[in-house]
């Protein structure tokens, strides 16, 4: 991709410079988030591979990091580019390792501040374990509670991950294994014994990535996102089988999703705010100069950009996005954006975006509208445009 992005090393340098700037007059982080967000949103609006881009954002949501955590601001887009995007059609294990070692995730879930209770650094600083990354990896990213793991497994896995940290001061900034913060000695996680050192974390992630319960978790989430809020059991079974047979090949899983008959049933999923806004902008094909600040629009519609409130990311269920006031905000925004569309032809846009899925009475109302803005608002506010 030949678009400008900032690397995680550049983000960490910016964080370091902001920390050194005592008067706070110049932010080195703000230009990074501004430029990278503009690039990421432009990709969403102009990509000629929209399904692959949907996969990028699906996996970014599965492995959520959030701008609500201050230092993540400088790293979030580097995380998408370095840990998510290269692996969306690769092996799940590779993505999992890239995510778990990325500075954005290590900062977001506090592993950079996790110390082995008996480690030299932990005893010297009187600091201990932070279990956040271990817990979310088990609960959300891999095997889920359905696998039967215990609190002791969480604690032991957190010990495995001690020392997985972030280097700010030395060059090049990035992931760093701090041996003096690592809990040495044997640990047992879900019956698997690990002997210590950086390599035990890699082995644990490899084992977790290939568990049947992990594949089932991923299959359910893929089908829920792309097919239906209540995933059809047969569809889940097909995607799960593809993952098991290929040892977590995400391209095979994505192709199985595309091959599902239910995946082609139209209008089964309510678009989340970000999906809706991107769909509108792609349909209108507005030049860049006419586009509003989309980060502000996402927030106004209830889905602040890259800012999920919790590590489980944004919901894929219609009930979480279909409150009357939320839908009214969409209609208000539809009227606003229709005013930027100039001489766009509402009927042509309706035909291109929905075609026969748009009810005849809605198309008639669009044709009878008093002006282009009213006609476009009727189209963009139609229930069919809210769904995919």
- The tally of domains stands at 3
Describe the global form: globular
Q: Mean pLDDT, rounded to whole units?
A: 96
Structural class: mainly alpha
| Range of helix content | 40-55%
Descriptive account of the structure:
The protein has 388 residues and is mainly alpha-helical. It has 3 domains: 8-209, no CATH class; 212-264; 273-386, no CATH class. Helix content is 53%, strand content 4%. It has 19 helices and 4 strands. The protein has helices spanning 8-20, 30-46, 50-62, 76-84, 92-100, 103-108, 120-125, 132-141, 151-161, 198-209, 212-226, 233-246, 250-259, 273-284, 294-300, 324-338, 346-353, 360-368, 372-381; strands at 164-167, 174-177, 187-189, 192-194. The strands form 2 sheets. A two-stranded antiparallel ribbon has the order 1-2. Helix 4 (76-84) packs antiparallel against helix 5, helix 16 runs antiparallel to helix 19 (372-381) and helix 18 (360-368) packs antiparallel against helix 19 (372-381).
Question: What are the defining features of this structure?
Answer:
388 residues; mainly alpha; two-stranded antiparallel ribbon
Topology:
Elements: H1 8-20, H2 30-46, H3 50-62, H4 76-84, H5 92-100, H6 103-108, H7 120-125, H8 132-141, H9 151-161, E1 164-167, E2 174-177, E3 187-189, E4 192-194, H10 198-209, H11 212-226, H12 233-246, H13 250-259, H14 273-284, H15 294-300, H16 324-338, H17 346-353, H18 360-368, H19 372-381
Antiparallel strand pairs: 1-2, 3-4
Helix pairs in contact: 4-5, 5-10, 8-9, 11-12, 12-13, 16-19, 18-19
């Amino acid at each position: 991709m030949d678009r400008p992005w900032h690397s995680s090393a550049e983000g960490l340098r910016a964080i370091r410079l902001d920390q050194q700037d005592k008067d706070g007059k110049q932010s080195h982080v703000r230009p990074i988030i501004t430029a990278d967000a503009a690039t990421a949103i432009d990709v969403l609006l102009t990509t000629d591979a929209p399904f692959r881009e949907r996969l990028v954002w699906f996996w970014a949501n599965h492995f959520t990091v959030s701008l609500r955590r201050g230092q993540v601001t400088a790293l979030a887009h580097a995380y998408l580019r370095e840990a998510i995007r290269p692996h969306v059609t690769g092996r799940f294990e590779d993505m999992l390792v890239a995510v778990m070692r990325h500075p954005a995730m290590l900062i977001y879930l506090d592993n950079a501040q996790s110390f082995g209770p008996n480690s030299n650094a932990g005893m010297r600083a009187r600091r201990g374990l932070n279990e956040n990354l271990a817990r979310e990896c088990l609960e959300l990213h891999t095997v889920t509670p359905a696998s039967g793991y215990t609190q002791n497994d969480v604690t032991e896995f957190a010990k495995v991950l001690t020392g997985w940290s972030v280097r700010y001061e030395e060059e090049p900034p990035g992931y760093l294994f701090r041996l003096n913060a690592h809990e040495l000695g044997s640990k047992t996680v879900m019956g698997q014994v690990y002997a210590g050192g950086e390599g035990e974390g890699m082995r644990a992630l490899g084992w977790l990535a290939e568990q049947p319960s992990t594949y089932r978790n991923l299959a359910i989430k893929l089908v829920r996102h792309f097919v239906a809020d209540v995933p059809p059991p047969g569809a889940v079974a097909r995607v799960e089988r593809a993952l098991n047979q290929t040892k977590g090949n995400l391209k095979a899983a994505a192709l199985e999703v595309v091959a599902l008959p239910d995946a082609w049933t139209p209008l089964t999923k309510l678009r989340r705010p970000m999906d809706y806004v991107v769909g509108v902008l792609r349909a209108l094909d507005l030049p860049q100069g006419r586009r509003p600040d989309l980060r502000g629009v996402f927030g106004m519609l209830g889905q602040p950009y890259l800012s999920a409130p919790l590590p489980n990311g944004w919901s894929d269920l219609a009930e979480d996005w279909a409150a009357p006031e939320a839908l009214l905000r969409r209609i208000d925004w539809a009227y606003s954006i229709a005013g930027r569309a100039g001489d766009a032809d509402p009927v042509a846009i309706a035909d291109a975006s929905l075609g026969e899925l748009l009810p005849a009475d809605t198309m008639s109302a669009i044709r009878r509208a008093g002006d282009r803005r009213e006609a476009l608002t009727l189209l963009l506010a139609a229930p069919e445009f809210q769904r995919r």
